[in-house]
Amino acid sequence: MRRSSSLADRLFWPIVAGGAASLWVGPKALAVAGLVVLGLVMHRLGRGGRFRRRVRAIARRHRETLALRRRQESYVDPYGNEILDGWLRERSYFAERTLLPRLEAEGYGDLVEARWDEILDIVEAASLSVAAPDEAAALPEDGIAYERYCAALLEQAGWDARTTKAAGDQGADVVAERDGLRLVVQCKRYAKPVGNGAVQEVVAARSYWGADCAAVVSNAGFTPAARKLAAATDVLLLHHDSLAALGTRPGGRPPR
């Protein structure tokens, strides 16, 4: 991690130069050196504020995605407790992979460790700055209705989507087609993160239906095991909020 020079380092040479010059030029040189020193002190004192503003600016640019990821990675357990473990991991990931490299490149690397909690608080505030949809009123309670709900969201995105029959679906709750592509989807209306069993099922469904791509969609997050298996098998893990804007990339793959 790159470290910025200390205030003492910055002041040393202006003071030495000003003192030496004053022996030759007189008090005016010393006054100029004093102004330089004062400018450096004021610049240094304002560095913490500039650091915070920079962190806020970067986090604000990603607030929509952060808000979505917070909803995806949080859930309420059967006891009514809000479980944020997945979101806390995602928040740290964003800070480490997105914020940290930029802050280091801009000369703030020496402040990161001491202000890490402040950075996380700023990211948290950005994730909460976007109003969440009223899912309590809109989200179906049972699994079959949730499958229809997901199919309707895909229809909004331009897919020709249909739910499958409960029997013989071979792991696909929704089959959707667009621009010559076929997508199979497992829909999980859960009160806890979805495990890797759903990923295994949709991998089998992709083969059975001859699909180009496969996804597991849930209102909750996904376990680390599910994420690992999905990455290895090229399965998309999505929150249903992502479906209404799900398009296709050049080359035919839905975006991750």
Automatic annotation (TrEMBL):
Tell me the ranges covered by the Restriction endonuclease type IV Mrr domain, including all copies.
145-246
Q: Which UniProt keywords apply?
A: Endonuclease, Hydrolase, Membrane, Nuclease, Transmembrane, Transmembrane helix
Q: Name one GO molecular function term.
A: restriction endodeoxyribonuclease activity
A Pfam family of the record is: Mrr_cat
Return one Gene Ontology term, BP aspect: DNA restriction-modification system
| Domain of life, source organism | Bacteria
Which residue ranges does UniProt annotate as crossing the membrane?
30-46
Q: Which PANTHER family match?
A: MRR RESTRICTION SYSTEM PROTEIN, SLL1429 PROTEIN
Protein name, entry field? Restriction endonuclease
Organism, by scientific name, is Methylobacterium currus
